Every structure is written in C-alpha cells, then in structure tokens.
Amino acid sequence: MFTYPVKLEKDKATGMYVASCRDLPLMNSVGDSIQCTLQESIHGLVTAVSIEIDEGRTIPSGSKIKNGEYAIPLPEWVATKASLHNAMIESGLQNTE
C-alpha cells in the first residue's frame, strides 16, 4: 500500500533523468543518474502527497507496477499520515474537528 509506479525518461537535451508518476501527476523529480533520480522520486512523492492532503483529496494507494516502471514506496510516516487522511475523508471528518 502506498507504493507508486514511477517512470523514468532520459532528457536528450540535458542528459538528465526525469521521473513521473501516473497515480500522482503533481510528482516530478530530476536526477543525473537512474539511482539519483529514484532517490529524488521519494521526495517528489512526499511533496505530491502533501499537496493532495492540503487540498483535501483522497490519496491513491498506488497502481500495479507496469513493465519499465519502478516501485517506489512512501516513507512509513508519510504512508501512515496518508492512511489516516483517507480514513478521515471516508468518515466525513475534517482535519480541524
């Protein structure tokens, strides 16, 4: 749960790798190597989830990984917060209640 499919593409103009996530379109990360970009993807996912929470939207749990994608899990503390956030939305509670 809360493991996301991340796709990397190499930008031919800059030689950098660009990461995106189909479950969280606000997520993007860039790095100069595959490993660096995957590490930066964790920060991108955390930021995207934070924005979704601030906007009061349900956090998707993560789609099945397709060929050519990398499985990137949220850090445990962020996954816990996302799970609580989703439960509050489902129960009709507001964060201020």
UniProtKB/TrEMBL annotation:
InterPro entries with a match to the protein in the record: HicB-like, TTHA1013/TTHA0281-like
Pfam assignment, any one: HicB-like_2
Residue stretches making up the HicB-like antitoxin of toxin-antitoxin system domain: 4-82
Name of the protein this chain belongs to: HicB-like antitoxin of toxin-antitoxin system domain-containing protein
Source organism per UniProt: Providencia stuartii
